[in-house]
Design a protein that fits this description.
single chain, alpha+beta, five-stranded antiparallel β-sheet, 5 helices, binds biotin
Length: about 250
């Protein structure tokens, strides 16, 4: 993992570049890293603000041979490991908002976009785990629409942070998470997820393709779904979507 790093000063999206490399046979564990992305991608078709030299914008090629359904859990396991490691290495209180957002002080510090690259039937032959961490972006430097919800490591820590140290944290956290996930699935991240989750025990609404599901978050399933208890008391598993509202119970 990370023994092969393909560095680009500027690229449209490290995820797009990594997918092309995966298609061309690039080995498991290759990291595609850029100083700047001109068309960085976020979840649900959103853009990811990726200014030059101010964040870690990286994508890791994996060849997990996993069932397609289990890719979502890999994103969650990665987010949990990353929040944990950033807390430990940089002395901040980082949390996970389902599925893959890394928050500090309620604002978004980083995100993860897992995309399948080569699929054979139900099996993912290769995938790309894209990780974005805002490192040195000043509050005023975010685009207007992100200013109220985004933050960076330097802002949260209250001191400049070396991007290379963040890259090391990201790669070693991912390496550990991927190994545990390959052996034990989402179960491997469940306990820490419960500690770090911003939604556990809260009443939330999740929107997915125009449908809204509401309920109290009671757990992460052993397969990586969010388990909600609906108003009728029944447990429902949710696999996709965006949390659009969070309230105390
Ligand atoms: C999200 O929270 O919406 C996911 C953001 C993922 C951003 C990273 S930055 C590196 C990689 N390349 C991309 O185009 N996106 C991911």
């Amino acid at each position: 993992m990370g023994r092969r790093i393909r560095y680009l000063a500027s690229v449209v999206s490290t995820n797009a570049a990594a997918k092309e490399l995966a298609d061309a046979g690039e080995p498991d564990g290759t990291v595609v890293l850029a100083d700047e992305q001109t068309g960085g991608r976020g979840r649900s078709g959103r853009d990811w603000f990726s200014p030059s030299g101010l964040g870690v914008w990286a994508s890791i090629i994996v060849r997990p041979g996993l069932d397609a359904k289990r890719l979502a859990g890999l994103g969650i396991a990665t987010a949990v490991a990353l929040a944990d490691a950033m807390g430990r290495d940089f002395g901040i209180d980082a949390r996970v908002k389902w599925p893959n957002d890394i928050l500090a002080g309620g604002r978004k510090l980083g995100g993860i976009l897992v995309e399948a690259a080569q699929v054979a039937g139900d099996t993912i032959e290769s995938a790309v785990v894209g990780i974005g961490v805002n490192v040195g972006i000043e509050p005023d430097a975010f685009p207007e629409e992100l200013r109220a919800t985004a933050t960076s490591l330097a802002t949260v820590a209250g001191r400049p942070i070396d991007r290379l140290l963040v890259l090391e944290t990201v790669l070693s956290a991912f390496k550990g998470a991927y190994g545990r996930y390959a052996a034990e699935g989402a179960e491997s991240a469940r306990e820490r997820w419960r500690d770090l989750s911003t939604t556990l025990g809260r009443v939330i609404e999740i929107e997915d393709a125009g449908r809204v599901v509401a309920g109290t978050v009671i757990d992460l399933s052993s397969e990586g779904a969010l388990v909600l208890e609906g108003a009728d008391g029944r447990a429902v598993e949710v696999w996709h979507g965006n949390v659009v509202a969070i309230r105390p119970k």
